[in-house]
Write a structure and sequence with these properties.
The chain is built from 4 helices and 4 strands, in the order E-H-H-E-E-H-E-H. By secondary structure, it is α+β, with helices and mostly antiparallel strands. The chain has one domain (about 5-95): Lrp/AsnC effector binding domain/regulation of amino acid metabolism (RAM) domain (Alpha-Beta Plaits), CATH 3.30.70.920. A hairpin with a 6-residue loop joins strand 2 and strand 3. It starts with a strand and ends with a helix.
């Protein structure tokens, strides 16, 4: 399955929710999985983004649905990146 990186920034409402109910972080992972994607790794980060999730989904449309469903709540803003394994990129660059 293709791999995607979700860079997430909490809105003020999202930050309040996480402060009041920290377990909400893991609940969102289960919601992502109910939408057809799988969370492989999750990190809380300092700096520009609050969370980085490594996620697998069947295709770009599936991960777009995840991002839109979560963002529609107004508690988070998500930037989605397609992740290409380095070995695959090297093979493509070699003409494979």
């Amino acid at each position: 399955m293709p791999t995607y990186v979700l860079l997430s920034k909490l809105t003020d409402g999202g930050a309040k929710t996480v402060k009041d109910k920290p377990e909400r972080i893991k609940e969102v992972n289960r919601e992502i999985e109910s939408l057809g994607a799988k969370v492989i790794h999750q990190y809380a980060t300092l700096g520009r983004y609050d969370f980085v999730n490594i996620v697998e989904a069947k295709d770009a449309a599936a991960i777009a649905r995840v991002g839109l469903e979560l963002a529609a709540r107004g508690t988070i803003r998500i930037e989605t990146l397609t992740a290409i394994p380095a070995d695959e990129l090297i093979a493509q660059l070699r003409g494979g």
